[in-house]
Design brief:
Elements (H helix, E strand, L loop, with lengths): L4 H22 L2 H14 L8 H7 L59 E2 L2 E2 L11 H5 L4 H14 L2 H5 L1 H12 L1 H16 L5 H13 L2 E7 L7 E2 L8 E4 L8 E4 H24 L4 E4 L7 H20 L10 H11 L3 H12 L9 H7 L5 H5 L7 H5 L3 H24 L2 E4 L7 H15 L10 E6 L5 H14 L5 E5 L4 H11 L9 H22 L4 E5 L3 H14 L8 E6 L4 H9 L4 E7 L2 H14 L1 H28 L2
Parallel strand pairs: 3-7, 3-13, 7-8, 8-9, 9-10, 10-11, 11-12, 12-13
Antiparallel strand pairs: 1-2, 4-6, 5-6
Helix pairs in contact: 1-2, 1-5, 1-8, 2-5, 2-25, 5-8, 5-25, 7-8, 8-24, 9-10, 10-17, 11-18, 12-13, 21-22
Length: 643
């Protein structure tokens, strides 16, 4: 039996990494203070309260109710008609007149909610929870868990360690052996950021979350690093793709296809794990694990070039493609205008509004339709070069079938799927596949709630436009819209790729613009849901306290209750517990994004996430440590005064 858990967790870690991290850690006076406090706690009998006691005895938040009085619904320009894809990046906001919420800060606001009802019941505005209460945040943690969290966040303050984590781990494996390295990582970073290795081992963590009103989003961290050979070598072991227009042959190996089939089984296990241990939760799916990544890139190129062609048809760049513009451009680019033009215009503008519709256009220019469409091109241009081959279309269909197999099982199991966003070079294909799933499994005549959630990354300049198109598409095709809103996790990669390939940076120039885009996206969706009485759902996946407060203020304004499935909140497991636990305690739909899997499989995934979010980690680490320090001091005072 461990007599001094708070000390031993440090001793085991420092035994392996002491020469590297001890000087940095002990140079921090706050760390020395907390270490001494933990030592005093560990040397005494400490009667820890039960989770239920902590939940019941935590003080209630103040009656702070913010409002968004600066927002006037009649001042908003909602989406109608569809925006043009030819708009400039500077104009890619939901509305040029859409103001930001007023800052909530710590200033209480009140407003008149008299007469507002939800389902016939008088609506009571939500008080903004106190997100700075250490007991609510960490009161259920053991001394070992507190010590481990302090150690992890101290290490996260040193960017060289985070930036070179994978190299350091490989070096440790070489010097100390993989067994010892895995043991150290499993008892530190893995234990803090992951719930376990399999369904059985994650069950205690999920049960603890559920006791605090928090659901789980299970994510088995399987990633595909599929490769394509373009040199013709090894073609006997793969599918040879001969794209049209004399392009080089591509070979898609069977090994990557077999790996994708295996990943289907992995995700099915994840769906079953959600059903068994967190029935109100979600399963996360990465599409790059279900299809060769370079095949996804080919598919994305085809979709993007189809969009670009549509934008070219807007000759006067006024944001609208008229019938005359379409007819003139079609005859310019294609040689079958006499036979097809009239029927195409009837399809694209069935109401004779003199506006050619992009949503209908996207239907007739799906990647699988491009060979037939580009066969009548007058010249070989970007769209023709992006056209997939017959073999590639078959592989795309296989990828689509894998996703449908998962969606079907999730639908039957009462589990919901979150389709993760990935690199921008894959995203058009991922969106296309996800919208296909939503049209079937979110259909209004099939389900009362959405089963499939897409993901929109709000650091991308084109998100407002894409989001509005996706909402309109769901309305027209009678299925429930649902998405997870994130700020984005691949900023450095996207900016470097844009510079290398000489195309405009797709990321907002400032973090303030990204914040504004995120908050406006939340507002647009919630207002659209209320004003159109649609069953729309949004998951606010954010570690930004101000965005959460703004969302709650907007819920108050629109009469959306905390338990309403319209709004979900989510944070990563092991981070921002002050947000998740407080939201769960106050009756909001709160979730933790919970990676799990074998240590060797999960750690590379976590290290990449840490590197991609190193800026966020740096900004939030001091806040996390402050709450941990305050919780330790609170416990020390409880011991000293016998309370």
């Amino acid at each position: 039996m461990i007599r001094k858990p708070g000390i031993n967790i440090f001793r085991r870690t420092l035994a392996s990494y002491g020469p590297y991290i001890a000087p940095a850690l002990y140079s921090s006076s706050s760390f020395r203070s907390i270490y001494s406090s933990l030592q005093r706690i560990s040397c005494r009998e400490y009667a820890t309260k039960s989770d239920a006691d902590i939940a019941d005895n935590t003080s209630q938040p103040t009656n702070y109710v913010p409002t968004s009085s600066a927002l006037k619904s009649n001042n908003l320009t909602f989406f109608n008609p569809l925006p043009s894809l030819a708009k400039s990046a500077n104009a890619s906001r939901f509305s040029s007149t859409l103001p930001l919420h007023e800052t909530t800060g710590n200033i209480p606001h009140t407003f008149n909610q008299s007469g507002k009802t939800v389902g016939g019941v008088p609506f009571t505005p939500h008080a903004i929870p106190d997100f700075n209460d250490p007991e609510s945040t960490h009161g259920s943690k053991s001394v070992i868990e507190l010590a481990r969290a302090i150690l992890i966040y101290q290490l996260c303050r040193f960017h060289p360690i985070v930036d070179n984590a994978e190299s350091l781990m490989n070096l440790s494996s070489t010097v100390f052996g993989s067994t010892l390295t895995d043991l150290v990582m499993k008892t530190t970073f893995f234990k803090h950021f992951c719930a376990g290795e399999d369904e059985k081992s994650i069950e205690p963590a999920i049960k603890k979350l559920r006791r605090h009103g928090i659901g789980g989003i299970l994510d088995y961290a399987a990633e595909n690093e599929g490769e394509i050979s373009t040199d013709g070598i090894g073609y006997k072991e793969g599918v040879i793709s001969q794209p049209p227009y004399n392009q080089p042959a591509r070979v898609y190996d069977y090994k990557s296809e077999h790996q994708c089939d295996q990943h289907v089984e992995t995700f099915l296990k994840c769906i079953h794990a959600v059903k068994n241990v967190s029935p109100e939760g979600f399963a996360a799916v990465k599409v790059t694990a279900l299809g060769n990544p370079l095949l996804l890139e080919r598919m994305s190129n085809a979709i993007t070039e189809a969009k670009h062609l549509y934008a070219k048809f807007d000759l006067n760049k006024d944001g609208v493609v008229t019938r005359d513009e379409f007819a003139k451009c079609y005859r310019t680019f294609f040689n079958d205008g006499d036979e097809k033009l009239d029927s195409l215009l009837d399809t694209l503008d069935p109401n004779k509004s003199d506006k050619v519709d992009y949503i209908e256009w996207s239907k007739i220019l799906a990647p699988s339709d491009l060979p037939q469409v580009t066969a009548s091109c007058r010249a070989v241009g970007p769209l023709a070069l992006a056209t997939p081959s017959e073999e590639e279309i078959k592989l795309m269909d296989a990828m689509r079938q894998r996703l449908h197999a998962l969606a079907e099982e999730a639908s039957l199991s009462g589990v919901r799927l979150l389709i993760d966003a990935e690199h921008l070079k894959f995203q058009p294909a991922i969106d296309n596949l996800t919208l296909d799933l939503q049209q079937k499994y979110n259909a209004i005549d099939r389900t009362e709630i959405p089963v499939i959630f897409n993901t929109h990354q709000c650091y991308l300049k084109d998100v407002p436009e894409r989001l509005m198109i996706d909402v309109e598409r769901s309305r027209r095709n009678s299925y429930h819209f649902a998405t997870k809103l994130v700020r984005g996790a691949y900023m450095n990669f996207e900016q470097e790729r844009a510079a290398d390939m000489n195309y405009p940076d797709p990321i907002h120039e400032t973090i303030e613009n990204t914040h504004a885009c995120y908050d406006e996206a939340v507002e647009y969706l919630l207002r659209y849901r209320v004003e159109n009485n649609l069953n729309l759902e949004v998951m606010c996946a954010t570690h930004n306290k101000r965005s959460i407060e703004k969302a709650i203020g907007l819920m108050n304004e629109l009469g959306i209750s905390a338990s309403d499935s319209t709004v979900h909140f989510a944070q990563l497991y092991g981070m921002s517990d002050n947000l998740t636990y407080t939201l769960g305690k106050n009756g909001f739909r709160a979730y933790k994004y919970v990676p799990y899997g074998l240590v060797r499989e999960v750690m590379p995934y976590l290290m990449r996430r840490a590197q991609e979010n190193s800026g966020m980690m740096g900004d939030n680490t001091s806040k996390e440590l402050d709450l941990l320090h305050r919780e330790v001091k609170r416990r020390v005072l409880c011991i000293q005064y016998g309370t």
